[in-house]
Amino acid sequence: MNRLNIGITAFDQSGKDKISAAFEEPMLDEICNQSLYETFGEEAIDEALKDWEEGNTDAIMVVPAEGETKLNPAALNGMDMIVWHNLRMAFTNGDEDIQSQIIMLEDALRRDFDIDKPRISPFWDAEHLEAFDVVMMNEREQGLKEFLNYTNGNGIAFTTGRELVCTSPFSEESFFESIFLAKDILAARERYDEARKNPLPKLFADKKDENRKHHESDKQG
After folding, report:
1. Gyration radius of the chain's alpha carbons
2. End-to-end CA distance of the chain
């Protein structure tokens, strides 16, 4: 995809200070265009959401309040996840049918993370995490504790199941990774949607190729 346009906002002044410090890093200017908001908290999030709805930004990043580990700081509808590199944990919503949530998660893993055949674990097993693409948890507090202990406090909150890509870093080390994650998800969606935009020509091309092979085989026979 082209250069990322991202709206970056914070829940409190501490978060704004972290953003200001991060923008002293020249690398950030190389990977994205940033829209910064003078306000913070709910007002800034509303401003960022409006910017995205009007097409001014591609994604949003929300820096949580000091000491806060919110999985969904922008209160979005969807399934909440926490991500750190190839480790992913998704949290179920007790008010919804579990099967429909599994389908939503599988669809998200295909479109957002380029995972063709998602492998979902129903429980946390630190010794066998590499065998799965995501851990699906019912208990948020326990799941989050296990995840952050495993990653030394690093992680990025992300809500699947909607077009808006909104990430939130859990630590200062996660700040740049949060932007990279948004960029990677948007690029994965672009590839996924492009591949499925017009499947008929490929179907006809495959059929034509198959007929040609049969014809050549008959001639040789």
Report:
1. 21
2. 49
Taking the C-alpha atoms of residue 52 and residue 56, their distance in angstroms, rounded to an integer, is 6
Query: What is the pTM assigned to this prediction?
Result: 0.84
Domains in the chain: ranges and CATH: 4-200 (3.40.718.10)
Nearest to 46 by CA among 14, 7, 89, 80: 7
**Residue 22 neighbours by CB under 8 Å, 6+ apart:** 28, 175, 176
- Convert the pLDDT of each residue in 63-78 to its tens digit: 988 777 778 878 888 8
Binning the chain into helix, strand and coil, the percentages to the nearest 5 are 50, 20, 35
User: 24 φ, ψ to 5°?
Assistant: -80, -10
Beta carbons of 93 and 100 less than 8 angstroms apart: no
The answer to whether 102 and 136 have CB atoms below 8 angstroms apart is yes
Tokens found for residue 13: 């002044």
For 27-82, the pLDDT digits (tens) are 777 778 888 888 888 888 999 999 999 999 999 999 988 777 778 878 888 899 99
